[in-house]
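This part of the workshop introduces the protein records we will be handling. As an example, a complete record with its sequence and its structure tokens follows.
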Amino acid sequence: MKILAVNPITTPEYSLWWGRRINDNIPASSQEDVRPIDEHLQVVPSELEIIKQDFKKKSSEWGKKIEQLEEEKMHLGLNVDIHKLEAEELRKGKNKAEENLDSLKIDYKKLRLSMTTTGLGKTSEQWRALEKNLLECQNEEARLKARVVELEKSFHLHYSRNSMIELRASLSKIEELKGKIEELKDVL
């Protein structure tokens, strides 16, 4: 029979080990260490399968980014079209105002000529009203011309600055993402 001397140097782990030992140092198996057979037979995915899953995930993310960039490109194109339509509308308004002004000037000259040749005269109040109307038309024409110039500048500035830069950036991003996809396909 073996005797165990207990002294203050023994630790709780040693006492536990000593209690479980059978046949001189062979510990008995306990139910704590038992695992089901399913855990032992669990299939671990291969490195290639993991890479394929990562590729599918990244490819999906890049596809979403490409769709987002293409949608932004479409919105920019719509903004440019809207500005073109507004500028065209203002040009038409300006042309119509110029035609009206020219027509008024011609009518005014004809009226003055007929007045001087026939000796008929209008009252000074009527002349003032005609002159006031002519001045209003000239002011309106000047205001419309200034507005057209301002909108054309805004249109060209917006179109040249934003559209080209953003389209180039979008295209470069798309090309970069396509290149990465091709690299990943080559790796697989």
